[in-house]
Amino acid sequence: MPTITDTIINRSSKRAFLDKPVPREIQEKILKAAAMTPSGANMQPWITYAISDKDVLKNIGDAIIQKMNSGVAHDQFIQYYPLEWKPLYKKRRFETGIGLYAHMEVDRKDVEKRTKMWHDNFRWFNAQCVFFVFTDKTMIDGAVGALIDCGAYMQSIMLIARDFDLESCPQGSTTEFGKVVARVLDVPDNLALLYSVVLGYEDKDAKINSYKPQRADISENVVFI
After folding, report:
1. In this structure, how many other beta carbons lie within 10 angstroms of the beta carbon of residue 154?
2. 77, 102, 118, 201: which could join 18 in a potential S-S bond, CB 3.0 to 4.6 Å?
């Protein structure tokens, strides 16, 4: 039986899934356990839309891609990435992207293949289940506690999913088009999309799933006193 440490160390984001639905009862078990994630003052600021309807997922993906093709870079509630990248973080992002394309033998100048790989985000990598996590807009109006809590909730979802032999991929790509997602789902006006998590059964034959970017040594980001 893998330990929590094993699960954290061995987990990686998958980008190719089998065309196999995630049973409703499993989704419920994952979300009930994830709901135990600690939050400031027990606010529990997450509001999750668990979507397995293929037509709905297709409509969301179509709407995002259409928005991208119209020249819109983002249509979001929150700014996920920094507006000004510091060299260290820019380097890590660059190396991760280049590493993925190199792993898939896609040339940097091959715009068609790179675009398809990006659009695959909005085809949910063929997964049949996506959790879209929202919060009330008032929770993030001049405050960041709910963002921290919902980040912990995301980690809980992905780790608990491993107990059911499910893999996952957290998506900041949908963060950048959160308002598009909200419109397609016709969510209440008070909600803002924070991110989505793709869940499903891994396609173990897919080359892309063997890619795992390197992590920095803790000497780069930990101070012991």
Report:
1. 22
2. 201
